[in-house]
Design a protein that fits this description.
The chain is 9% helix and 33% strand. It is built from three helices and ten strands, in the order αβββββαβββββα. The strands form two sheets. It has a five-stranded antiparallel beta sheet, covered by helices on one side. It has a five-stranded antiparallel beta sheet with strand order 9-8-7-6-10, with no helix packed on it. The longest helix has 12 residues, at 205-216. Residues 1-8 and 196-217 have low confidence and may be disordered.
Length: 218
Protein backbone atom coordinates (compact mmCIF):
# COMPACT_ATOMS: atom_id res chain seq x y z
CA UNK A 1 0.00 0.00 0.00
CA UNK A 2 1.16 3.55 -0.61
CA UNK A 3 0.76 6.70 1.41
CA UNK A 4 -1.95 7.82 -1.05
CA UNK A 5 -4.25 5.00 -0.02
CA UNK A 6 -6.49 5.50 3.05
CA UNK A 7 -5.53 3.39 6.06
CA UNK A 8 -2.06 2.75 4.64
CA UNK A 9 0.75 2.09 7.06
CA UNK A 10 3.15 4.89 7.98
CA UNK A 11 6.26 4.98 5.83
CA UNK A 12 9.42 3.76 7.50
CA UNK A 13 12.84 4.69 6.12
CA UNK A 14 15.32 1.90 5.61
CA UNK A 15 17.47 1.33 8.70
CA UNK A 16 21.01 2.70 8.70
CA UNK A 17 23.91 0.92 10.42
CA UNK A 18 23.96 2.10 14.02
CA UNK A 19 20.20 2.72 14.20
CA UNK A 20 18.15 1.43 17.12
CA UNK A 21 16.88 -2.05 16.33
CA UNK A 22 13.13 -2.53 16.15
CA UNK A 23 11.71 -5.36 18.22
CA UNK A 24 10.81 -8.29 15.94
CA UNK A 25 7.15 -9.23 15.73
CA UNK A 26 7.95 -12.75 16.93
CA UNK A 27 9.33 -11.36 20.20
CA UNK A 28 6.39 -9.02 20.78
CA UNK A 29 3.77 -11.74 20.19
CA UNK A 30 5.21 -14.48 22.40
CA UNK A 31 2.43 -16.22 24.39
CA UNK A 32 2.23 -15.43 28.06
CA UNK A 33 2.27 -12.33 30.23
CA UNK A 34 4.65 -9.49 29.51
CA UNK A 35 6.33 -7.68 32.38
CA UNK A 36 5.73 -3.95 31.82
CA UNK A 37 7.30 -1.10 33.77
CA UNK A 38 5.85 2.30 32.88
CA UNK A 39 8.45 4.94 33.56
CA UNK A 40 8.71 8.09 31.47
CA UNK A 41 12.15 9.30 30.45
CA UNK A 42 13.34 11.74 27.82
CA UNK A 43 15.88 10.02 25.61
CA UNK A 44 17.54 10.35 22.26
CA UNK A 45 17.25 7.48 19.83
CA UNK A 46 19.30 6.72 16.75
CA UNK A 47 17.01 6.60 13.70
CA UNK A 48 17.80 7.12 10.05
CA UNK A 49 21.45 7.68 10.83
CA UNK A 50 20.85 10.57 13.25
CA UNK A 51 19.80 11.20 16.84
CA UNK A 52 16.20 12.17 17.56
CA UNK A 53 14.72 13.26 20.87
CA UNK A 54 11.97 10.99 22.11
CA UNK A 55 9.97 9.93 25.13
CA UNK A 56 10.52 6.44 26.49
CA UNK A 57 7.32 5.42 28.27
CA UNK A 58 7.40 1.63 28.71
CA UNK A 59 10.01 -1.01 29.51
CA UNK A 60 8.80 -4.49 28.53
CA UNK A 61 10.28 -7.91 29.26
CA UNK A 62 8.60 -10.41 26.90
CA UNK A 63 7.75 -13.78 28.48
CA UNK A 64 10.78 -16.04 28.69
CA UNK A 65 13.06 -13.37 27.23
CA UNK A 66 16.27 -12.02 28.71
CA UNK A 67 16.12 -8.70 26.82
CA UNK A 68 14.25 -5.50 27.47
CA UNK A 69 12.10 -3.88 24.81
CA UNK A 70 11.23 -0.19 25.11
CA UNK A 71 8.46 1.96 23.67
CA UNK A 72 9.73 5.30 22.35
CA UNK A 73 7.66 8.08 20.80
CA UNK A 74 9.29 10.99 18.95
CA UNK A 75 6.36 12.67 17.17
CA UNK A 76 2.60 13.15 17.24
CA UNK A 77 0.58 10.75 15.08
CA UNK A 78 -1.62 13.62 13.90
CA UNK A 79 1.29 15.63 12.50
CA UNK A 80 3.75 12.92 11.46
CA UNK A 81 2.67 13.20 7.79
CA UNK A 82 2.46 9.49 7.16
CA UNK A 83 5.77 8.58 8.77
CA UNK A 84 6.38 6.59 11.91
CA UNK A 85 5.92 8.51 15.17
CA UNK A 86 6.76 5.74 17.64
CA UNK A 87 8.05 2.21 17.88
CA UNK A 88 9.13 -0.73 20.03
CA UNK A 89 12.89 -1.23 20.12
CA UNK A 90 15.40 -3.62 21.61
CA UNK A 91 17.10 -1.67 24.35
CA UNK A 92 20.71 -0.82 23.54
CA UNK A 93 22.38 1.89 25.61
CA UNK A 94 24.52 2.91 22.61
CA UNK A 95 21.45 3.61 20.45
CA UNK A 96 18.90 4.74 23.03
CA UNK A 97 20.38 6.98 25.68
CA UNK A 98 19.00 9.35 28.32
CA UNK A 99 18.94 13.07 27.77
CA UNK A 100 20.73 14.91 30.58
CA UNK A 101 18.49 16.72 33.03
CA UNK A 102 18.80 20.51 33.22
CA UNK A 103 21.63 21.59 35.45
CA UNK A 104 22.75 24.85 36.96
CA UNK A 105 21.50 26.85 39.91
CA UNK A 106 17.99 28.19 40.39
CA UNK A 107 17.38 31.71 39.06
CA UNK A 108 18.35 34.54 41.39
CA UNK A 109 15.27 36.58 40.52
CA UNK A 110 11.75 36.41 41.97
CA UNK A 111 10.17 34.02 42.92
CA UNK A 112 13.18 31.67 43.19
CA UNK A 113 15.91 33.78 44.78
CA UNK A 114 18.38 30.95 44.23
CA UNK A 115 16.10 28.13 45.42
CA UNK A 116 14.20 25.84 43.07
CA UNK A 117 10.40 25.68 43.29
CA UNK A 118 8.02 23.43 41.38
CA UNK A 119 6.04 24.74 38.43
CA UNK A 120 2.94 26.56 39.69
CA UNK A 121 -0.17 24.44 39.17
CA UNK A 122 -3.32 26.09 37.83
CA UNK A 123 -6.72 24.85 39.10
CA UNK A 124 -8.63 23.10 36.35
CA UNK A 125 -11.60 25.44 36.71
CA UNK A 126 -9.33 28.40 35.95
CA UNK A 127 -7.55 26.79 33.00
CA UNK A 128 -10.40 27.16 30.54
CA UNK A 129 -12.16 24.61 28.31
CA UNK A 130 -11.04 21.00 28.49
CA UNK A 131 -10.83 20.83 24.69
CA UNK A 132 -8.10 22.78 22.91
CA UNK A 133 -8.43 24.80 19.74
CA UNK A 134 -6.15 24.12 16.78
CA UNK A 135 -4.07 27.15 17.69
CA UNK A 136 -3.69 25.96 21.29
CA UNK A 137 -2.78 22.38 20.49
CA UNK A 138 0.88 21.41 20.41
CA UNK A 139 3.17 18.43 20.92
CA UNK A 140 6.36 19.34 22.74
CA UNK A 141 8.70 17.20 24.77
CA UNK A 142 9.88 19.14 27.80
CA UNK A 143 11.57 19.08 31.16
CA UNK A 144 9.15 19.99 33.93
CA UNK A 145 10.03 20.88 37.50
CA UNK A 146 7.60 19.11 39.84
CA UNK A 147 7.83 16.89 42.91
CA UNK A 148 11.07 18.63 43.90
CA UNK A 149 12.84 17.42 40.76
CA UNK A 150 12.93 17.41 36.96
CA UNK A 151 10.41 15.21 35.19
CA UNK A 152 10.26 14.04 31.58
CA UNK A 153 7.06 15.57 30.24
CA UNK A 154 4.89 16.05 27.19
CA UNK A 155 3.14 19.39 26.65
CA UNK A 156 -0.01 19.17 24.52
CA UNK A 157 -1.81 22.49 25.07
CA UNK A 158 -0.58 26.08 25.41
CA UNK A 159 -3.04 28.92 26.03
CA UNK A 160 -3.65 32.24 27.72
CA UNK A 161 -6.85 31.83 29.78
CA UNK A 162 -7.68 35.53 29.76
CA UNK A 163 -6.41 39.01 28.89
CA UNK A 164 -3.42 39.99 31.00
CA UNK A 165 -3.07 36.49 32.46
CA UNK A 166 0.10 34.43 32.10
CA UNK A 167 0.43 31.66 29.53
CA UNK A 168 -0.29 28.18 30.83
CA UNK A 169 0.38 24.70 29.47
CA UNK A 170 -1.06 21.25 30.02
CA UNK A 171 1.76 18.83 30.76
CA UNK A 172 1.84 15.11 31.43
CA UNK A 173 4.84 13.38 32.98
CA UNK A 174 3.52 9.86 33.58
CA UNK A 175 0.45 7.67 33.76
CA UNK A 176 -2.91 8.35 35.40
CA UNK A 177 -2.78 11.45 37.61
CA UNK A 178 0.68 12.61 36.57
CA UNK A 179 -0.66 15.60 34.63
CA UNK A 180 -1.56 19.20 35.37
CA UNK A 181 -2.09 22.69 34.06
CA UNK A 182 0.90 24.82 35.04
CA UNK A 183 2.10 28.35 34.41
CA UNK A 184 4.47 28.41 31.45
CA UNK A 185 7.48 29.68 33.37
CA UNK A 186 10.58 29.10 31.22
CA UNK A 187 12.66 28.43 34.33
CA UNK A 188 10.71 25.29 35.25
CA UNK A 189 8.99 24.32 31.96
CA UNK A 190 11.71 23.76 29.39
CA UNK A 191 10.65 22.42 25.97
CA UNK A 192 13.31 20.60 23.98
CA UNK A 193 14.47 22.16 20.70
CA UNK A 194 12.06 21.46 17.86
CA UNK A 195 14.74 20.98 15.22
CA UNK A 196 14.53 17.42 13.92
CA UNK A 197 18.30 17.31 13.69
CA UNK A 198 18.91 18.61 17.23
CA UNK A 199 21.15 16.14 19.02
CA UNK A 200 21.49 16.11 22.75
CA UNK A 201 24.73 16.66 24.53
CA UNK A 202 26.58 13.55 25.61
CA UNK A 203 24.80 12.22 28.71
CA UNK A 204 26.64 12.22 31.98
CA UNK A 205 28.08 8.94 33.33
CA UNK A 206 25.47 9.08 36.09
CA UNK A 207 22.67 9.27 33.54
CA UNK A 208 24.06 6.36 31.57
CA UNK A 209 24.43 4.34 34.76
CA UNK A 210 20.81 5.07 35.63
CA UNK A 211 19.62 3.65 32.33
CA UNK A 212 21.90 0.66 32.71
CA UNK A 213 20.28 0.04 36.05
CA UNK A 214 16.83 0.35 34.51
CA UNK A 215 17.82 -2.14 31.84
CA UNK A 216 18.55 -4.67 34.56
CA UNK A 217 16.01 -3.64 37.17
CA UNK A 218 13.54 -1.11 35.70
Amino acid sequence: MTSDVPFSRPTRPAPVPGDAERAPRELMTLPGAHRDVRRWRLVEIRLGGRWRAGLLTVWRRPPGSTVWVVHVRWADDATSHGTDAWGWFLFDQDRIRPLPEPDGPAPAHEPYYGTWHDAVAVPRELAGPSTATLEESCWRLAWLRTGDGWRSALVTVRRRPGPGLPWIVHARWGEDKDAAWVIADAAVVRPLPQSEDAAATQPSPAAVSAVRGEATHP
